[in-house]
Predict the structure.
Amino acid sequence: MRRRSHLTVIFVALMMVGGNVLTTTPRGSALAADPQTELQRTQQQLADAQAVQRSLTHTLEQQRSQLSTLQAQSTTLAGQLDVARAELAAVTAEYDRVAGLLVQVRQQVDEIAAHLASLRAQIAALDGELRAVRVMIMERTDDLGEREGLLGDHLRSAYEQSRTSLLEVIMSADSLDEATTQVGYLLTVSDQDVALADEIRTMRAELETQRTTLRDGRAALAEARTIAREEEAILTARREELTVLEADLTVLRAAADQKRAEQEAALNAALEAQGNVATQVAENERAAQAAASLAAQLQAQAAAQQAAIEEARRRAAEEAARAAAEAARQAQESAEAARRAAENAVSTYGFRWPQVGFEVTQEWGPTGFQLEPPYTYRGTYYPHFHAGIDTSVACGAPIRAAGPGVVVASGRPLLPFDTGYGVVVEHGGSIQTWYWHLQPQVVVAPGTLVTGQSVIGYEGNTGHATGCHLHFAVNHGGVWENPRNYLP
């Protein structure tokens, strides 16, 4: 505020001196004939102009100092922003790695739990079957005892009857019919004993088979229970690992949020510093215009002042040349620093990064950057949302299609709302990739078939941009998704 007041005083003084210079004319032939008086008047005017010039020079030096401070501040902010970008990229990569491990461990936990449940069900079924076999063995053992007792009774009876001969049986019978009945009974008892003996042998074989089955089943049951205990131990270890990974993921998510907040703060600070520089430049331009006005007025004075004016012009030209050389040197250094190796990795979607040797200047997602518009993503409203990823190599750097597809829009398709140049490529499956802020030239037209190596434009700063960069976005089914999910 004091600087602007100082400039206002200088402008008023300049106008007063200029008015005096332009309105002062010789009054009468007597004054015109007095060169001493004219010389004194000219010297006084020159002294006034020199005083104003010294004040203006002092003010300009102060402004140059302030501008240097702002440029240093901008350089510092740029360094901080680079560090924040690198740290955010590292934290994001670690977050993605831990998240991937977490998914794998969860799958393993689910698989082990399902296998353990199936194994427990098999153990329960096998245990029930073995119980049934034990009951059956007990029942058949009782049946076998009864059959063996019955066979013993028959054998004893046959032994006792074997002491009486068949002839005695016939002779002792009262009639032929009684004798026939007695002989048939003896024969029938013999056949029944044979059948009973066969049944006993079959029952014994059956019992032996069931006992073998019981032994094998008990061994299988013991083995299944051992496997179940091992599976339970593995499941416990995986669940503990899952707990650790979930805790790590929470820490990494918090770290990523912190780094993203630092990056956004650096972006807003850079934007504010850029505004300060613009204000300072505007003030310098007004001061330069005032100096030019004073120079035009002084040109009407004596020829003795012309040498001082030429010297001032020479010094100004030297300063301008030095400034231009410094700007060219900084631009060359920036171009050298931006040159990087090509990146040829391809994602599962068949996409590559659209630039080579780039750096990410702003990530996708909710942001505190004031220039970003609002957006509702998956049901959540965000007042400021960056719908893509910003990358930068250098002004004019080539931009390639992320993958094979067909160009559906190019040039300035968002006029009159956005004057930026861009390209939209359709890849199928309701997936579109958008490339924005390109240089004002149309490289591909709608209907052009492109591959991952096709140059579709060059990095620029058209539209709503604060500098040269590429805004790369992925629209999947009408939703602005995170491009990192589609890139290698």
In short: The helical segments are 2-23, 28-32, 35-161, 166-172, 176-298, 306-338. The longest strand covers residues 431-438. Residues 1-14, 20-33 have pLDDT under 50 and may be disordered.
